[in-house]
């Protein structure tokens, strides 16, 4: 293990009080690493405050142990921290809460696995060799402590399973399986995780998928699948952003498609661009055209243009490749 990582994580375990944050529009790896690390630190007597922008008691990841303890940024706004950890976030501008954590913490530790990470922390534990930030947290914690509880194990395996597409994606390595086996040995509640991630889709979610598929565009010689969903439509179907994680992967798997794109309108009128590729197309590089990033086969970005303009910009850029 990198000696600097050892020192950084060791200092984190000794800290009396720590704040944790992740990226905007958190996914399974974001929630899993946030709550998994929170539980690990608490086993060492660290007082932990884990922040998110919104909480949804009926959300896709609300089953995770400790979810109810998450704090929104509209509370404890005057609290100052000696140390804060930003998890699963490749860029400073994508950190939940904007500059809040940078204004309320003396030192920032950046723990992430995105190839596009900009190393914005005072200390950075970053490597794209891990399938997920949850796998990286496991790697760090296993070498420092045996205090990975069944609760933290459940959180960490959730992030591994979501970021590997249930172990289907190319980022799944032998170490990923070793990490997962170890977490199951530590009594991760794999049954609950599988049920909530893969066998408990809401009727509203399925109805929205059906609606969206009717408006699916297959363009550029069949190589690109394209969906867009405005906020009005999502509100009409009563679904949240995290419910849409599977849509872009679903259309990527259409025969002949190389790139799948989902545009989603946020509550503040920005357009979230979700990108997936199947084989050779580097969506991380493509996302950088919009100041985004991620991984070669899974990336994202935000656009301040409206839906129509963003769609035109994305398609015009894709014409340079297909």
From TrEMBL:
InterPro entries: DDH_dom, DHH_sf, DHHA1_dom, Oligoribo/pAp-PDE_c-di-AMP_PDE
Domain DDH positions: 18-160
Gene Ontology MF terms in the entry: nucleic acid binding
Domain DHHA1: 233-318
Annotated protein name in UniProt: Phosphoesterase RecJ domain-containing protein
Upper taxonomic lineage: Bacteria, Bacillati, Bacillota, Clostridia, Peptostreptococcales
